[in-house]
Amino acid sequence: MHDKTLAELAAALAKREVSSVELTTHFLGRIERLDPQLNSFVTVTAEQALAAAADADARIVRGEAGPLTGVPMAQKDIFCTDGVKTSCGSKMLDNFVAPYDATVVERFKAAGLPMLGKTNMDEFAMGSSNETSFYGPVKNPWDTTRVPGGSSGGSAAAVAARLAPAATGTDTGGSIRQPAALCNLTGLKPTYGRVSRWGMIAFASSLDQGGPMAQNAADCALLLNVMAGFDPKDSTSIERPDEDFTAHLNQPLKGLKIGLPKEFFGAGMDAGVAKAVDEAIAQYRALGAETVEVSLPNSGLSVPAYYVVAPAECSSNLARFDGVRYGYRCEKPKDLMDLYTRSRGEGFGAEVKRRIMIGTYALSAGYFDAYYLKAQQIRRLIADDFKRAFEQVDVILGPTSPTTAFRLGEKTDDPVTMYLSDIYTIAVNLAGLPGMSLPAGFADGLPVGMQLIGNYFDEARLLNVAHQYQLATDWHRRMPGGFE
Amino acid sequence: MEWETVIGLEIHAQLATQTKIFSGAATAYGAEPNTQACLIDLGMPGVLPVLNEEAVRMAVKLGLAIGAEVAPRSVFARKNYFYPDLPKGYQISQYELPVVARGTLEIELEDGETKTIGVTRAHLEEDAGKSLHEDFHGMSGIDLNRAGTPLLEIVSEPDMRSAKEAVAYMKKLHTLVRYLEICDGNMQEGSFRCDANVSVRPQGQHKFGTRCEIKNLNSFRYVERAINYEVERQIAIIEGGGAVVQETRLYDPNKDETRSMRSKEEANDYRYFPDPDLLPLEIAADFVETVRTTLPELPDEKKHRFMTHYGLSAYDAGVLTASREMGDYYEQVVKVCGGHAKLAANWTMVELSAVLNRDNLDIADSPVSADMLGQMLARIHDNTISGKIAKDVFEAMCNGEGTADEIIEKKGLKQITDTGAIEKIIDEVMAANPGQLADYRAGKEKLFGFFVGQVMKATGGKANPGQLNDLLKKKLAG
Predict the structure, then answer these.
(1) What does the alpha-carbon distance between residue A168 and residue A219 come to, in Å, rounded to a whole number?
(2) Cα–Cα distance, B67 to A314 (Å, whole number)
(3) How far is A414 from chain B (nearest CA, A)?
(4) B144 CA to chain A: closest CA distance, Å?
(5) How many CA atoms lie within 13 A of B35 on its CB side?
(6) Which of A199, A312, A319 sits opposite B46 (nearest CB)?
């Protein structure tokens, strides 16, 4: 049952071949049995999941089911869930039970998808390996000595190991796409403003975007249909007519123009990754698409610009975790300053503190112009690069990450090398564009992801381009050994 | 050496919106602690601000009223600092691009001259909560009801040259925000408060001296006293060979002095940056024009109209337009009494104001309505009662004894205007006081008052004073 896609499970539920309670029980059983090897869940909400599944079954019987009613899923632990611990991967929020639902969670609840639990993640979404989590690293089901990527590493490992048919992720600099690539999944970061950020604990507000992680593009389209939409509670959410993201999946690719940014195919990429991406490009040509070399001349500035903007925003966003109203508070503070410094000093991990320090520095009087303003100018240059490219092509294709999954501990002592893991994904967040990662083959037995980048609000096209590839290939169907 | 004082004011006006600037929680004052703080006000993880359009409308109103520019695009910025009553660890404010810039306000000086004070900018921001230090046994309580209340911070140019000018400016702005109905002006509740930037320089010097900022002055009196104290302090330092240190100071009304809160070196680096949760505030020209149509008659316009239309002095017109309610009350009194503008002005400014002051009432809560006062004045004008009797009638109206006509009727206060009746009483009084009459006729004219008093006493004060004078003069002359 668990080897089925979301769409297949939904169809089985609709035909009453299986009940939601049965499905949910099955996945909860797999989590219980297999997750100790992976550590992909922070919290398993078995009781609530089964209750929601029973409700879903009743809805199906009443003929009131939506397209995904009854299919269980997992939520990244960055989304607030009413009455359920919402840790954001941090000791700071280890004791935090959210008093409300994030809009994304509310939408999935309303659509009738039982929540299996909350998935592990890098602390406050800051990391590319899921090793910064207070709850310990998540292991990659393809090789449990390796990382699943991050920050949505728990969601990626859980779906890859088929502990859940789908999960949510959030992507600030690649946190959906990079773990999707490292775990052989399809993951989509929507256009900034597409998915409400209400209730999604902020890392870098101008970059954060929630999105789906699943086995294939068709499933991502179904999930995005639930997640996307204007939310009056999020001022950066964009008001536009509802769209059916599955509507264009089957459109042939003949005449499609794919841009290949020359900057994405230079040094720094593993040979195995390069080979798989090259083969995928050949596959697209075989499907009738035309490939054109394009240039994103400022993409080399994206990592430095990102590591000013994201820490700057995070230094402010994380100021609320002060030990005063909720979350971790140090023992016996002797005065206010002691309460602040020890609560934050003890509650945050090293990477979070590093970024708060960087961001605080970048925003300080006398440095603001040189760092923050300069980084904002670079953002515009990067967005202009993409704008020019999209005058020539329909989508842009390249690798998602320069390497396959690396070993646990391999990069933890070298943050800059770790940051380069997101070198191809970060520019997309800086420009606010939609991007996705999909399985493109294997190198030494480890999954390789390719990235598709679309123009603003062109998610339907991205999903179409990914889906057509997935009709012609079966990389996305492969499952990690030991989790079949 | 002669010193010149230089003052600029930053005034925080709490906007009279129903809900907070970035959340739907109520703004009403005085609720139980933390009962008017929602998820957003508490700074919960994952919450986001949404701007209250009403607050923007109010800021635009002020901008138009002071002839300022309303920015087509302004930006909300985060002011970052840690404090227990600041739930997010930052205050959402406006920094580089405020919603209103470059306005002016005219104040009247003591010599009757007017002076134009520049308003540098006015920007929208959220208020913080309150820390409560009593009743918590060495700990602090936090009340977040006020957190997120909309404020308009109105920053003047350093154009004022004395504490009196500063107070005149503050009063003028206080009147204006209440006219515009954008702030209730309640200074005790902190709805209208002021930070004063004060410096001194030798008379004739162009360069400003080093300034100190005095925080949180919440009465006109404190503003005046704090500035005067601060000016003396700074002059004493400089004349003693020292230098003023730029710092933030607090005024202690009990000791009538200011004292240092923190120096420039200790000042926070607020690390302002544009709030990524809020899009830039874009205000369309037609929004501004719509707001313009809702502007009431402004204090200066009203004052000018009262002078030309009602023939009032500048002083009277100023007093009667000090608030919109006062102006409305006055105009209604004039209308009801039959257009006797001067009479209406005197009664409103003297008798009514005395009662309101005595009972500490707003004009809205006056025990005597404008209609009631107007009707009573009409009775003075048609000689039904004298001005003196009117004071008793007015007092009775204040005590809720009815309308003027009812009181006059009930108490028999109607003036005696019948010549025969008055003459009869005069005759009786003359007959009863032969000695005084003889003295008067022998040249002691001072006794005229005595006879007036006796007749009034006999009539219960109801004799028409003018008639009585005339008749008495004739009769006494013999």
Answers:
(1) 12
(2) 40
(3) 28
(4) 11
(5) 6
(6) A199
The CA distance from A268 to A286, in Å, is 28
Of B273, B212, B289, whose CA–CA distance to B247 is shortest?
B212
List pLDDT tens digits, range B201-216. 999 999 999 999 999 8
d(CA A355, CA A367): 16
Token pair belonging to A285: 């040509």
Q: What is the pLDDT of residue B465?
A: 85
- Which residue in the set A201, A235, A318 is minimally distant from B51, CB to CB? A235
Cβ of A223: how many Cβ atoms within 10 Å? 27
A256's tokens: 């499609």
Q: Is A380 on the interface with B (CB under 8 A)?
A: no
Q: What are the sequence ranges of the domains in chain A?
A: 6-256+465-477, 300-378
The rounded distance, in Å, linking the Cα atoms of A422 and A417 is 10
- Chain A interface mutation, best of B39, B40, B48, highest count of A Cβ atoms under 10 Å: B48
Which pLDDT belongs to residue B229?
A: 96
Residue from the list A86, A98, A197 with its beta carbon closest to the beta carbon of B48: A197
Q: Which CATH class is domain A6-256+465-477?
A: alpha beta
**Tokens 């970052």 belong to which residue?**
B80
From first CA to last CA, the distance across chain B in angstroms is 73
> Which residues on neighbouring strands pair with residue A449, listed in sequence order?
A439
Judged by DSSP in three states, A461 sits in helix
> Residues A200, A107: contact at Cβ < 8 Å?
no
Interatomic CA distance for residues B365 and B356, integer angstroms: 9
Using a CB-CB cut-off of 8 Å, the residues of chain B touching A88 are 45
Where in the sequence numbering do the catalytic residues of A fall? 76, 151, 175
Closest residue in chain B to residue A232, using alpha carbons only: B50
State the average pLDDT over residues A300-316: 97
Q: Could you tell me the sign of the dihedral formed by the alpha carbons of B373, B377, B380, B386, in that order?
A: positive
Chain A: residue whose CA lies nearest to B141 = A324
Residues near A298 by beta carbon (within 8 Å), at least 6 away in sequence: A378, A381, A382, A384, A385
pLDDT at B29 over 90: no
With cut-offs at 50, 70 and 90, classify the pLDDT of residue B85.
very high
Please check whether residue B393 is in contact with residue B376, taking contact to mean a CB–CB distance below 8 angstroms.
yes
Residues in chain A: 484
Report how far apart, in Å, the C-alpha atoms of B255 and of each of A421, B195, B281 are.
63, 19, 44
| Start-end of H helices in A69-196 | 103-110, 153-160, 177-182
Instruction: For residues A290 and B278, give the distance between their C-alpha atoms in angstroms, rounded to a whole number.
Output: 40
Long-range contacts at B232-235 (CB < 8 A, ≥ 24 apart): B233/B258, B234/B198, B234/B199, B234/B200, B234/B209, B235/B3, B235/B200
Say yes or no for a CB contact (<8 Å) between A368 and B45: no
Tokens encoding A149: 């990527």
SS3 A216: coil
- Indicate the burial class of B240 (C-beta count within 10 angstroms; 0-12, 13-18, 19 or more): exposed
Q: At what angle do helices B370-381 and B387-398 cross, to 10 degrees?
A: 160
Return the pLDDT at B134: 78
pLDDT in tens, B236-264: 999 999 999 999 999 999 999 999 987 77
Q: Which tokens in the block code for residue A311?
A: 């820490």
AA letter at A319:
A
Report CA-CA distances (Å) from B42 to A103, B86, B125: 18, 9, 16
Q: How many CB pairs under 8 A join A and B?
A: 101
CB–CB contact A235 B90 (8 Å):
no
The pTM for the full model equals 0.91
Concatenated DSSP letters of B140-171 = -EEE-SSTT-EEEEEEE-S-B-SHHHHHHHHH
For residues B118 and B179, give the distance between their C-alpha atoms in angstroms, rounded to a whole number: 20
* Torsion A134-A140-A146-A147 (CA) sign: negative
